[in-house]
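Go through this one:
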Amino acid sequence: MPSRVYLDWNATTPLRPEARAAMVAAFDLIGNPSSVHAEGRQARRLVEEARVTLAAAVGALPRNVIFTSAGTEANALALSPGLRGPSGGPVERLLVSAVEHASVLAGGRFPADKVGHIRVTRAGVVDLDHLRALLKDGPPALVSIMAANNETGALQPVAEAARIVHEAGGLLHIDAIQALGKIPFNINAVGADLATFSAHKIGGPKGIGALVVAEGLAGLEPVLRGGGQELNRRAGTENVAGIAGFGAAVKVALQAFPEDAKRMASLRDRLENGIRAIAGATIFSDDTERLPNTILFTAPGLKAETAVIGFDLEGIAVSSGSACSSGKVQPSHVLSAMGFDPAVAQGAVRLSLGWSTEPDDINRALEAWRKLGNTLLRD
C-alpha cells in the first residue's frame, strides 16, 4: 500500500528531527528554569538559547521574546487595551482585518464595542484606504493584520500598513505565524510593534508559541498572572522541552530558507496548473502575491466536506481551510470577507506544501483530483 501524501502543512507540520532531538535532551533535565541551583540553570540555559535564536531570526532583542502556550495565546496577549502608542497614550480600540485568524477576530481583551473590522479586496488583501478612514474616525488604535493568510496564502501589505498606523498614532500587531520560514520577516523591517509566531508551523512541537515585541513598547499586561516568568509578562513554569524544540526548528527553517520556498513554489505552480485543467477550477488570490506553498481552490458544484473525504480516501490529506474549528468543515469566513457567495465558500479546498513534499506527491494529488473531479462534479 503506498504511503499517504500530506498536503495540510498550513494546519501543522511534521516534527523536524532536530526539534525532536532537542526536546528529548530537554526531557532529561529535572530542574525548574526559575530555580537558581545547577539543575535549574541547565533548564534556563535551554530556554534562553531558544529565545536568542528566535529573536535573531525575526530581528528582535531576546528580552522582547515572550514564550506562550501557542500562537492563539500569543495573539490574546498582544491584543491588550493597555498598550501605549507613539503619542504616549493608551490605544483605545482595536481594528482587525476581516480575514484574520479566529483568535484575532475574537478581539483579545478589547470590549466587543471597541473592535472594528477592516475590509479586504476581492483578492483577499487589506483595503488600505478603508484602514486610513477607520483610523481617522476615532481615537488611537491597535491594528492587527496577518502577514500571510492561512487559507488563501495572500500576503498582506504590512509595511505600508505600519506606516499608516504609526502616522495616526497607533500600533500594529502582525500575526506572522504562517510567514516564518516561508517568506522573509523582520519585525523592524516591516515596522511592527508586536508579532506572533507558532512552533508547529515550522517543524517544532505543538503547544508552544511566542509574542515578540518591538523595543520600547509599553503597557503590555499579562493574561496569566501569579508568577514572574517571562520577565513578568506571562506567568507559569516554562515548557522547557517545547521551547527547546521551537528554537531548534527555527534554526533549521531559517537555514533552509529560501531554497525550500523556491522548491515549494515550483511544486505549487505545477499542482495549480493541474487543478485548473479539470472542471474549470478557480484558484483564490491567484492575482496577488501569495505564500509559496498554499493553494485554495474550488470548482463549480464542489462541496468541501465531500472533497476532503474523497482526497482522504485516496490517501491525500488536505483541508477545507483553517484547522481551528473543532475538526468541522465550515464555510470560509475569509472567502465571505472577500465577497464570494456562501455556496462558493462551502466548496473551497486548501492544499499546502512543505519542505519534504516531493514531485511524486504532486502527481498523486493530481491523480486523486482527476478521479474526484470526474465523480463529484459530474452532472
In short: The CA atoms of residues 31 and 40 lie 4 Å apart.
